[in-house]
Automatic annotation (TrEMBL):
<protein>
    <recommendedName>
        <fullName>Beta sliding clamp</fullName>
    </recommendedName>
</protein>
<dbReference type="GO" id="GO:0003677">
    <property type="term" value="F:DNA binding"/>
</dbReference>
<comment type="function">
    <text>Confers DNA tethering and processivity to DNA polymerases and other proteins. Acts as a clamp, forming a ring around DNA (a reaction catalyzed by the clamp-loading complex) which diffuses in an ATP-independent manner freely and bidirectionally along dsDNA. Initially characterized for its ability to contact the catalytic subunit of DNA polymerase III (Pol III), a complex, multichain enzyme responsible for most of the replicative synthesis in bacteria; Pol III exhibits 3'-5' exonuclease proofreading activity.</text>
</comment>
<dbReference type="GO" id="GO:0008408">
    <property type="term" value="F:3'-5' exonuclease activity"/>
</dbReference>
<dbReference type="GO" id="GO:0005737">
    <property type="term" value="C:cytoplasm"/>
</dbReference>
<dbReference type="Pfam" id="PF02768">
    <property type="entry name" value="DNA_pol3_beta_3"/>
</dbReference>
<keyword id="KW-0963">Cytoplasm</keyword>
<feature type="domain" description="DNA polymerase III beta sliding clamp C-terminal">
    <location>
        <begin position="253"/>
        <end position="376"/>
    </location>
</feature>
<dbReference type="Pfam" id="PF02767">
    <property type="entry name" value="DNA_pol3_beta_2"/>
</dbReference>
<dbReference type="Pfam" id="PF00712">
    <property type="entry name" value="DNA_pol3_beta"/>
</dbReference>
<comment type="similarity">
    <text>Belongs to the beta sliding clamp family.</text>
</comment>
<keyword id="KW-0235">DNA replication</keyword>
<keyword id="KW-0548">Nucleotidyltransferase</keyword>
<dbReference type="GO" id="GO:0009360">
    <property type="term" value="C:DNA polymerase III complex"/>
</dbReference>
<comment type="subunit">
    <text>Forms a ring-shaped head-to-tail homodimer around DNA.</text>
</comment>
<dbReference type="InterPro" id="IPR022637">
    <property type="entry name" value="DNA_polIII_beta_cen"/>
</dbReference>
<dbReference type="GO" id="GO:0006271">
    <property type="term" value="P:DNA strand elongation involved in DNA replication"/>
</dbReference>
Length: 379
């Protein structure tokens, strides 16, 4: 196997594939990067058994400057190989695999020789039926992930909650995540679902890595779903993730259908106030801020205190306050995550009781996006 390639172009593909490679794995060969060279181009593959990423550099891509001399395949130690490539002196590099998997990497006057592994021992990627597929635009998929992954649980004691629940049916998609303290749910209408219906749970860690790779434009991303795997295809990249097994909790019943107090905030202004209040709450052992709503006086106030340092009190700007007066305490970090997911919009916050979960929705669109936060008992 021997080829020459543009170093900058190669590093971009290498960086994407490395997201799937872990230094800690029970299968030693998965700490390596698989390179497969054919007459059509170069395929880079990385996997950690949970996610697998494959990207293709075409021989027809002028920017890649890929010159194929001898097709073949090899697995190279990923971390070490990557460090070498990033530090090579010239804009192009040559990789030449000789007998016994000895791999020579040259660029200008620099030359490295490292030992590779037999690519035939590398696990095969899952095969997913192309007939079962739908598509979303990259920017929408990225938005869905960022709005829901914040509520994914980090506790491995309940593995099912470490994923995002995706339900696709009747040309609609619902993504929901909860860690039992908060919940985030996003719905949208899609045309590409056809008659396919899916109910799957995708690990939050997988989607976090996917979001970092997706382009910001409105290019298409194909989703192909099998019994225990999902494949995302965009550009020259294929991103595989295993699915979580089990039944996701019924989250619809957690969302209050009525409210006794509602208030509208500008999301950015409210976020700034919460950030100021959390400066002190983070110094306290319980990390709580309190929101007081006085309907008769049309007044909203936020409080936080730390016995060791002091306290903060701030009157809040708001657009509309109706219902019953209320005092409620909550974790400010949950509120900050929720508010950031709304961007530059007006948010309606709806409360039922001081110890019941409350919801945040965009004032312009109550139906398609909702954040729920469970308050904190302070007595």
């Amino acid at each position: 196997m021997k080829f020459t390639v543009n170093r900058t172009n190669f590093i971009k593909s290498l960086t994407d594939v490395q997201r799937a490679i872990s230094a800690k794995t029970t299968i030693p060969i998965l700490t390596g990067l698989k390179l497969t060279l054919s007459e059509k181009g170069l395929t880079l593959t990385g996997s950690n058994a949970d996610i697998s990423i494959e990207t293709f550099i075409s021989a027809d891509d002028d920017g890649a400057e890929l010159q194929i001399e001898r097709p073949g395949k090899i697995v190279l130690p990923a971390r070490f190989f990557s460090e070498i490539i990033k530090k090579l002196p010239e804009s192009v590099l040559t990789i030449n695999v000789t007998d016994n998997y000895q791999t020579e990497i040259t660029s200008g006057q620099a030359s490295f020789t490292i030992k590779g592994l037999d690519a035939d021992n590398y696990p095969h990627l899952p095969e997913i039926d192309e007939a079962q597929q739908l598509s979303l635009t990259s920017d929408i998929l990225k938005q869905i992930i960022s709005q829901t992954v914040i509520a994914v649980s980090n506790q491995e004691s309940r593995p099912i909650l470490t994923g995002i629940h995706l339900v696709i049916k009747n040309n609609s998609l619902m993504a929901v995540a909860t860690d039992s303290h908060r919940l985030s749910q996003r719905k949208l209408t899609i045309d590409s679902a056809q008659d396919n219906a899916y109910d799957i749970i995708i690990p939050g860690k997988s989607l976090n890595e996917l979001a970092k790779m997706l382009p910001d434009d409105a290019s298409d991303v194909e989703l192909r779903i099998s019994e225990n795997q999902i494949l995302f295809v965009f550009g020259n990249t294929s991103f595989y993730s295993r699915l979580l097994e089990g039944n996701y909790p019924d989250t619809e019943r957690l969302i209050p259908q009525t409210s006794e107090t509602t208030i509208e905030f500008n999301a950015v202004e409210f976020l700034s106030s919460i950030e100021r209040a959390s400066l002190l709450s983070h110094e306290s052992h319980n990390n709580i801020v309190k929101l007081s709503l006085e309907v008769s006086e049309q007044k909203a106030t936020i409080y936080s205190n730390s016995p060791e340092i002091g306290n903060v009190e701030e009157s809040l700007k708001f657009q509309n306050l109706t219902g019953n007066s209320l005092e409620i305490s909550f974790n400010p970090d949950y509120m900050k995550d929720a508010l950031r997911s709304f961007g530059q919009t007006t948010v309606t916050v709806s409360f039922t009781k001081p110890l019941r979960p409350f919801t945040l929705v965009p004032s312009e669109d109550h139906e398609h996006f909702i954040q729920l936060i469970t308050p904190v008992r302070t007595f």
